[in-house]
Amino acid sequence: MKRQDYLKWDEYFMGIALLSAQRSKDPSTSVGCCIVSKDNKILSVGYNGMPAGCSDDEFPWEREGAPLDTKYLYVCHAELNAILNYTGSDIKGAKVYTTLFPCNECTKALIQSGVGEVIYYSDKYHNTDSTTASRRMFDAAGIKYHKYEPINKLITLPL
Predict the structure, then answer these.
(1) Of 86, 69, 71, whose CA–CA distance to 34 is shortest?
(2) Mean pLDDT of the chain
(3) Cβ(94)–Cβ(36) under 8 Å?
(4) Is the distance from CB of 21 to CB of 78 less than 8 angstroms?
(5) Per residue, what are the HEC states of the chain?
(6) How far apart are the first and last CA of the chain?
(7) Do residues 96 and 118 lie in contact, with contact meaning Cβ atoms separated by under 8 Å?
(8) Per-residue pLDDT tens for 16-60?
(9) What pLDDT, on the 0 to 100 scale, is given for residue 60?
(10) CA-CA distances (angstroms) from residue 114 to 104, 111, 121, 132?
(11) pTM for the full model?
């Protein structure tokens, strides 16, 4: 008889997004993203971080201060990184698993790339203008989105 406690697809792919977030050097918000084809194949992953060639030690990670002294003008978000990391030719209809509901800028990129569904882990910025705009755009574009429902199973990585 086959094992019964294996991970379902949603748990597996959100687990990949959560693991990817662990690569982020951001001290306040680590975000991961996993893009999956219609037939459950991983197409790409990404996490939030500085662009290639921009040192994590030389650019700011602060959240407050003058704009040029904060992370916001520099950091590339997980969803955009996952789109940019994709080396194939078509992600139309793909599912996106992300640990944080996408901002308006990533939402535009997700819509333009043709994704069909977004599954998110956290929506801690739900009442911001950015995520309100994201929901409006997803709704207008006919892209489904919903919160991931954890199965309350602790997954540990063997050493």
Answers:
(1) 86
(2) 94
(3) yes
(4) yes
(5) CCCCCCCCHHHHHHHHHHHHHCCCCCCCCCCEEEEECCCCCEEEEEECECCCCCCCCCCCCCCCCCHHHCHHHCCECHHHHHHHHCCCCCCCCCEEEEEECCCHHHHHHHHHHCCCEEEEEECCCCCCHHHHHHHHHHHHHCCEEEECCCCCCCCCCCC
(6) 28
(7) yes
(8) 999 999 999 999 999 999 999 999 999 999 999 999 999 999 999
(9) 96
(10) 15, 5, 21, 20
(11) 0.94
- Report, as residue numbers or ranges, the catalytic residues: 79
Under 8 Å CB-to-CB from 139, ≥6 apart: which residues?
A: none
Pick from 80, 91, 95, 75: which is nearest to 143 by CA?
95
**66: phi then psi, degrees, rounded to nearest 5:** -60, 145
Helix axes 129-141, 104-113, angle to 10 degrees: 20
State both tokens at 23. 């690569």
